[in-house]
Amino acid sequence: MFGFLRRKKNQVPGDAAIESPVDSSVDAPEVDTLGTDTSPITEPVEAPSTIEPEPLPAVITAEPEPAQTSTQIAIQSAPQPVTQEKPKSRFWQQLARARNNFTEGLGDLFLGKKAIDDELLEEVETRLIMADVGQATTRALIDALHQQISRKQINDTEALFETLSQLMIERLERVQKPRPAPTEQPHIIVVCGINGAGKTTTIGKLAHHYKQSGHKVMLAAGDTFRAAAVEQLITWGERNQIPVIGEPGRQDSASVLFDAAQSARARNMDVLIADTAGRLHTQGGLMDELKKLIRVVSKSIPGAPHEILLVLDASIGQNALNQARQFHEAVGVTGLIVTKLDGTAKGGILFAIADELKLPIDFIGVGEQIADLRPFDPKGYVDALLDREDI
Ligand SMILES: Nc1nc2c(ncn2[C@@H]2O[C@H](COP(=O)(O)OP(=O)(O)OP(=O)(O)O)[C@@H](O)[C@H]2O)c(=O)[nH]1
């Protein structure tokens, strides 16, 4: 069942709406498969009104309770069924903004409504657009719902949302591919993207991911444009206890990458992850430089680079599509990492990316901590986005 429906159905007049923002200060657990992590909950949970309120953490803001009427007191003193909420995962919590944007207000529309009407479908369409799913993908989803309604395959509001979830999962799964196993030594991954998309941070997290799975990992500080980027990468190297090739002051990123590839081979590294300078997809000269970097890497080790991962910032919404198109055209991107999904209401951008670019989404970034990178799982993502509760 969908959480926003259940909450509305169970709502008792006078319930205080508690808004709980993501607390990014919480220490992150290790990278985990979606749904298995049972970190403490800060997701809104409606306790039956007869239970004594717990002391609230500082991050929770609640409207002051209005004075209770005698009717409310009578309702509260009646025995209430105690429903045990399943603990929510940290991942669920990290997608709070995207989910709230999507489900806000839908519960009200559903309240007391069984039949599907145009108002409801229009609201669903609006929510999809607002979540940055994009015009074309939204249209395709709504058309598919209309078809199933007219064929009487969907008869009530819950079935409508279940079908929408399935359609959304399918659209993401269509373009997913299994991650390439690092069988060549070294397996070289070049990471690119525009300035500030989260490349260096993502490389730190990706290194952690590989190290956790038992691989020997090395980093190449190929972002020679921004001196702080090299230091940032060296810090990530120390945090992961892995070597980093490149030092502040080096100018030529192609030679850093060449040296790193040689060094990784000589030291029997399983995985070499190379950082590159941020560049706008519209800067022709810098895009040519990226092509040159890739050529140098391919000359250093036959078959390399084995992956070219493009980092996209989810919070820029539809602009991410254009960036991805241009990078793909220039260097043949093999997969995407979409970052900052924890801080954005634009969680729908992943559907537009999958539909329009047909490139697999390898990982998503949901925070700044070392373990806040998750292998992308379409079903887990849709469940968290649509407040679907059977994970
Ligand atoms: N909330 C959140 N912040 C992120 C995520 N990934 C990266 N960041 C933050 O985004 C900011 C930019 O990250 P960087 O890794 O420096 O970005 P970059 O692409 O290497 O930047 P340039 O070297 O300038 O091109 C930093 O403050 C990161 O902590 C994420 O998944 N969630």
Automatic annotation (TrEMBL):
Query: EC?
Result: 3.6.5.4
Q: What GO biological process term is on the record, naming one? A: SRP-dependent cotranslational protein targeting to membrane
Give the UniProt entry's GO cellular component terms: cytoplasm; plasma membrane
- Region annotation Disordered: residue ranges? 1-53
Keywords in UniProt for this one?
A: Cell inner membrane, Cell membrane, Cytoplasm, GTP-binding, Hydrolase, Membrane, Nucleotide-binding, Receptor
Complex and partners: Part of the signal recognition particle protein translocation system, which is composed of SRP and FtsY. SRP is a ribonucleoprotein composed of Ffh and a 4.5S RNA molecule.
User: What family name appears in the similarity comment?
Assistant: Belongs to the GTP-binding SRP family. FtsY subfamily.
Q: What is this protein called?
A: Signal recognition particle receptor FtsY
| Species of the source | Halothiobacillus neapolitanus (strain ATCC 23641 / DSM 15147 / CIP 104769 / NCIMB 8539 / c2)
